TrEMBL record:
This is Alpha-2-glycoprotein 1, zinc-binding. Residues 202-287 form the Ig-like domain. Keywords: Glycoprotein, Signal. It comes from the Eukaryota. GO terms for cellular component: external side of plasma membrane; extracellular space. PANTHER family: MHC CLASS I-RELATED, ZINC-ALPHA-2-GLYCOPROTEIN. It holds the Pfam family C1-set. The lineage of its organism: Eukaryota, Metazoa, Chordata, Craniata, Vertebrata. Residues 1-17 form the signal peptide. Belongs to the MHC class I family. GO terms for biological process: antigen processing and presentation of endogenous peptide antigen via MHC class I via ER pathway, TAP-independent; antigen processing and presentation of endogenous peptide antigen via MHC class Ib; immune response; positive regulation of T cell mediated cytotoxicity. It comes from Molossus molossus (Pallas' mastiff bat). The keyword Iron does not apply.
Length: 294
C-alpha cells in the first residue's frame, strides 16, 4: 500500500535559519508616502528592520524617529536626533517623487508610493542589496547595483528612470546601498546580535476536538519560539500522517513565532498519535503524544 502524503513534512521558511547560522544579516527600510492622508494621519512613514525584527519607526506627524521593541533599551546604536532629521528630509523627497509620478499618470486625489530599501551582509561582508519602489501597490521601478541603473517596471517608469539618471542619482544610489547601508548594518549588528541570534525553544501543546461526528481534529501548536523556521508534523506508529491544514503566526509583541498543524482522524481511532517538532534551539526533536484519554 502506498500512503498518499501531500505534505509529509512542514518546513516553514528553512532558508532563514541556515542564513543566520552562516552569518547572514539584513537591514531593510519599508517606507510609505500617501498623497492625501486622512486628518491626523502621517503622509510619510518608515520602519527599519534588522532581519525580521522592527527596530526603528519614523512618521511625518511626530517628525521623530523612535526605537522599537528591545531596541528601546539599547544605548549608543542610533543618534535619534540625526535620524529624525534625515528621515524628515527623506520624507519630503519621497512625497515630491510621489507627486512627480502622479503627474506622469495625470493622477489626482489619493495615491501611495511604497519603497523597500536595504542591504545584506554575510560573514561581515556586503553580499547584496535591494531598492524597489511601488506606485499604488504595483511595482514601478527598481535599482540594479550591478549595471548600475534604474530598471523601469512599468512603461511610464521609463520617464522616471531618465529623469533620475540625468540628475546623476545612479552612483549615489549604488554607494548608498553598497557602502552607507552596509556600514550602518555592520555598526547596528554590534549592538543587536543578542536579539538576532536569540534561540527561544518552542513550547508545544496538543488539542483534540471531536465535535464533527465521525471525525476528530487533532491540532498541534508550537509557540514562543525564535527564529522562525520550524518543522511540525504528526506521526502514527512511526508513519507521517497527511496534514489537513497548517498555519503560522507573524512575529508577536514579545518577538516570538507560533505555528500549528492539524490532522483529521476517525473518532473511533484511539491513537496514539505523536506531534513532532524540530527547531534550531532544540538539541533533539520534541515529540508530544496524544491518545484518546486526553
Ligand atoms: C488615502 O489612502 C490611504 C492608504 O490607502 C488611506 O489610509 C487614507 O485614509 C486615504 N485618504 C483618504 C482621505 O481617504
Ligand atoms: C510571549 O508572550 C506570551 C503571552 O503573550 C507568553 O506566554 C510567553 O511566555 C512570552 N514569551 C517570551 C519568550 O517571552
Amino acid at each position: 500500500m502506498v500512503p498518499v502524503l501531500l505534505f509529509p513534512l512542514l518546513f516553514l521558511g528553512p532558508a532563514v535559519a541556515q542564513e543566520t547560522q552562516d552569518g547572514l544579516y539584513s537591514l531593510t527600510y519599508y517606507s510609505i508616502g500617501i498623497s492625501r492622508p486622512n486628518e491626523g494621519f502621517p503622509s510619510f512613514q518608515a520602519t527599519g528592520y534588522l532581519n525580521d525584527q522592527a527596530f526603528l519607526h519614523y512618521d511625518s506627524e511626530s517628525e521623530k524617529a523612535e526605537p522599537l521593541g528591545p531596541w528601546k533599551h539599547v544605548k549608543g546604536m542610533v543618534d535619534w536626533e540625526e535620524v529624525s532629521k534625515t528621515q524628515k528630509a527623506r520624507g519630503d523627497f519621497f512625497l515630491k517623487n510621489l507627486k512627480d509620478i502622479m503627474d506622469l499618470y495625470k493622477d489626482t486625489g489619493n495615491h501611495t508610493m511604497q519603497e523597500k530599501y536595504g542591504c545584506k551582509i554575510r560573514n561581515n561582508n556586503y553580499c547584496g542589496a535591494f531598492w524597489t519602489i511601488a506606485y499604488d501597490g504595483q511595482d514601478y521601478i527598481k535599482f540594479d547595483t550591478e549595471i548600475p541603473a534604474w530598471i523601469p517596471l512599468q512603461p511610464k517608469a521609463l520617464n522616471t528612470k531618465v529623469k533620475w539618471e540625468t540628475e546623476g542619482s545612479v552612483w549615489r544610489a549604488k554607494s548608498s546601498l553598497e557602502e552607507e547601508c552596509t556600514q550602518k548594518l555592520q555598526k547596528y549588528l554590534q549592538y543587536s546580535r543578542t536579539f538576532l541570534d536569540r534561540q527561544d525553544p518552542p513550547s508545544v501543546s496538543v488539542t483534540s476536538h471531536g465535535d464533527l461526528g465521525h471525525i476528530r481534529i487533532l491540532r498541534c501548536l508550537a509557540y514562543n519560539f525564535y527564529p522562525r523556521p520550524i518543522s511540525v508534523y504528526w506521526t502514527q506508529a512511526g508513519n507521517v500522517v497527511e496534514t489537513e491544514s497548517w498555519g503560522e503566526g507573524s512575529l508577536s509583541e514579545n518577538g516570538t513565532y507560533q505555528a500549528w498543524v492539524v490532522i483529521k482522524i476517525p473518532s473511533s481511532d484511539r491513537g496514539p498519535y505523536s506531534c513532532h517538532v524540530q527547531h534550531s534551539s532544540l538539541a533533539q526533536p520534541l515529540a508530544v503524544l496524544w491518545n484518546e484519554r486526553q
